[in-house]
## 1
Amino acid sequence: MVSDAPLADLQRFAADIELNGLEVHKASVVLDERQDGEPVTRIALLVNDPDPLKDTWDFDAVRALKRELARKATELDLPSTSVTLVPDSEAELVEAFSS
Amino acid sequence: MPDYPIEPEKLLEAAELLAPREAPPGRPPYTAHRRAVSTAYYAVFHAITDRVVKAPFTEADTSFLRKVRRWIGHNDIRTVATWVEQLEGTSKGSPPPHIEALLAPRDGESHVDNDTLTISEGFLELNEKREEADYDHDAVFTRPDTLDHLARAKEIISVVERTQSDEAKRFFGLIAMQARIQARQ
């Protein structure tokens, strides 16, 4: 059983990340399970839209962000992470970001 | 007889058709994004199985290799990739002691290099996303996130196909051993 404290810690940590043009504006962290019953930490991040001249964010920045979150989750003894990036322009897709 | 083998590059092309870089204005086709991510994952999966079977069966013909590739399961790769992530501190827990002693001996160098890390980390991410894409009704696949998954799949496949590092070869070898031959009835 995971308490709410590490989830809140991870959410605070995630909400402060800014890497090479990729800025997290809001974060949502919940504990869930995979289809096989294995626990997973689902992280949804509301971030800035990509540069209008590009289709997506800086590749290395996304990888570094996910690695930082995975490392922090491990430090907090949370299960493996799954990160979803939601640009500001698609915020309505995630309930936690829609208001 | 026509031959239509499963080719990682062709799967990636199919994924790119589902989530093209040039998109018309309006609401993105989110169902197509799900299929694109799932397809990109399978491109990675099949690229890895190709390298894995070629590790022990260096002289085998195509027909033999195709049959043996079918024996490698998603969880075989997942298990070995998770050991790597645990050693890197990006996944909870530790590998079994005998595996840890093999990959990260206390009195020697770690057998995890950047190529191995790129493959294991990327495989686990796309494996999870593929499951969300196919089964999780609440999962969200935004356009730029989907395109990032496709770029990640492309990078992993490129590393899987070109790497000659000893560490990556050990990684492929461990997957081959994890996917041991199952009894048939």
## 2
Amino acid sequence: MTMTKNNGANLLATVTGIALMTVFSIFALHAENETSLLILLAVGAAGVFVAYKSGFVARAGQGLQAHRHVGDLCIVSAFAAMVLVFRNDHFALLQLATVLLYCVVCIGLNLQIGYCGVMNFAGAAFFGVGAYTAAVLSTHTQLPHLLVLLAGGFAAALIGSVLLLPVLRTRGHYAALVTIAFGTLFRSFLEVNDTLGGPQGLKVPGMQILGWELSEGITVFGMSFSFYVNYVILAFVLLAGVFILTRRIKRSWLGLSLDAVRIDETAASTFGIHIVRWKITAFIIGNLFAGIAGAFFAMMTSFVAPANFTFGDSLILLSIIVLGGIGNLWGILPAAAIVLLLPEKLQAIQEYRFLLYAGAVILILLFRPQGMFPRRLRTLIPGLGTLK
Amino acid sequence: MNATLLECRGLTMKFGGVVALNELDLDIRQGEVLGLLGPNGSGKTTFFNVVTGIYAASAGSIRCEGRDISKLTPQQISRTGITRTFQRSRLCLELSVFDNIAIGDHQNLNNGLWFNLIRRADLEKQIRDTFDRARALAKTFSPTLSERMLQPAGSVTMIDRRRIEICRALISRPKLLLLDEPSAGMTHEETRELMDDIMMVRERIPGLTVVIIEHEMNVIERITDRCVVLNYGRRLCEGTYREIASNADVQEAYLGQS
Amino acid sequence: MDIGFIGQHIWNGVMLGVIYAMVAVGFTLFFGVLDVIKFSHGDVLTLGAFVGLATYLGLQRLDVMSPFAQLIAVLALSIVSMAFLGALIARYLVLPLRNAPPFITLLITLMVGTVIRESIRLFYPNGSNPQAFPKLLPTESWHLGSFTLRVDTLILVVVGVAVILLVHMLVNHTRLGLAIRAVAQDSETARVMGINFRWVVLATFGLGSGLAAIAGLMNGLYYSEVYFGNGTMLAVIGFSAAVIGGLGNIYGAILGGFLFAAIQIATVVVLPLPSAYKDVVAFCVVIVLLAFKPTGLIGEKSSERV
């Protein structure tokens, strides 16, 4: 049986690790000028290096595995702390919520590409499908907004199926072709379509769920909170739900079948795994996530325009999952934070961001293809096999 | 006389101009261990691929227990109880040993969305149950393998990887097991051990029929009830090992090919 | 219907078809040899055009006014530099990853394309705007009734067809071509037979990229302008064309290129939708075609053995 002392040390590492990361993130988001941010980043990089070398990261990982509930509690508290600190900073909150929503899309992409091996180069386009669905439904119908979110997801899932089903019996590059074309043409299609607002886009009313008016600020214990806090909290709930669901998929026969399809279709079919069924399932679920996130994004930003859903944005989504580690769910959040927030803070690189990200992805794929956080072996049940 | 499990008539497989199987007639009897022999290129692996549905036969028929299976997909064929190993090892090396073996039981596991996502307690029970069965099966082949169930399949030895493939084929308690050169790369000792283990498992699965492609003749002699020799996609001769070994045509096919 | 009007459109289609076919042949060559979709192909095309443009401007600076010399220099520099770039990309980015899952190679070539595209946009003076491309070919037009034939398009089509025929001859009647076909069919056996796999791959990528340069120049000469974003759409079209014809099959790529152009022209002429829809419609037709003939109209190369 593992020693209690080790256990305690692991737990401490986990809690401390999460706390440190939260503090770091708060300082980073707060950074007013570029020098202070660069200094902070340097300190952070050094800290990460030390953490890896000293085994701190390994301990923290163990602690997280062994004490899931404590870990979950820490994460929720960390999040609450951030919300509290930035409670009146509209922009920081908006950025936070955007990062959370992009994480939702990336989890979907990871499911499609990392688990099942179905290529999807149109992540931003499906995100856009959800966004435009929300725009149209919330402006022209009285559909409750929760259902609008779902509808965004369904629209993305439906369009994805229509695109993919014809080519599923063929080899992988056809799925790539279809999604690349969709990702490239989506924006042009929207721009020539005046009913969908053309290049200027459409306005979208704010979200309202069961009487909770999300576009209004709230006051709690005498402290006032920007209305974006509502969206951030809800986005967090959405992310948590999607994360848990995907993790359940991974830790089940579903995840096993998806992996088998990705790794070796011939062997998988010989053992009864239905290739087309699993590919389409992964694709639909992934697109559901992207569509819901898109619908949410539209209602949060009160606006949709074709320029937000370009092929370049799809490539950015892919950079996030490559950076974080294909197939690894935990890596997505730090990767998304880096990819999305860095150019905002370092205005100098804003113009060069596509170039830099493309270059970074190339380097990663050549030299460390597993990304920041390599995908770990599946643990169907923690502790399986150690009982006897 | 045993009942016929698999009956092939006029089985032909063409790849462009190449005729890999040439109107092959072959019977596989229930419960036997059949050796499938023949020089390289005689169509043995192609035969396996056609039976398991990976290739669709150009002509001819295959009947399993009277039912025509020649047009079925690989998935449907596995449901009739036919499993196999591959000549070129096809494991998922990045997945664990247990994951690989569990894939073999895919048909019998519950793959529904609701079961896997919501009924987690029941899922856990099924996982544990499958784990125990997989581990017990692995243990018959190699106790060390059974201790490495949760390690990546790529981290075990080549021999153990072959054993994993065999376990994967056996875990669903099939009717017909097709082994494609299972002992390739093994020493004599390891081969003997492997064959003993396969025979032991065969006793535990009543009615299991085995067809084995092999080049090691001592193995064939020891474990097979009957042999069929293929040449150029046709059946050259059949009989017990003794009979076919002393057959002049067979000797010429193996040695005297021009 | 006015014959001249239809003729104009058909000629337009032929012109586009030649360009698309050239891009598609590149895709199909890369796929044939390495089982790889090199998505940076479109951006290499654009870069080729920009190199041509820069060469022309450089020649102007040096007071070289002979249109003949200009044309030769532009062609030579553009083709050679892109062939070299293609080989470099193959050597350092594609070959090392050839055992990785195909998604990785696709992604990396997409990113290479992005790097090229963004570099043009950021580093070429005024790169985010379309640049005027010089008229290096004779600018007369012949009028046959209501049909106006630009002489330069005639030259372009003839040259394009000639180039495609040359490639065809190269692949089918030379030793290099034989080596390429051998590697495409079965790279392991080809190596065993003594063919230098690496050189064949580099040569193929160089060849394909040189083709892209020519296509880029043709594109620039036809529209009299180049734009950093040209490449993405052309790559998608070239890829689709190669796929419709059957990946790995040169005749298929040529057929696919012309077919795609034909669908685009038909859309513009027959349907009442704005011309911006032509890509969308053409694309939908591609998907439908794939649904019925997944391995392409002529058929892609044989798949793996079990």
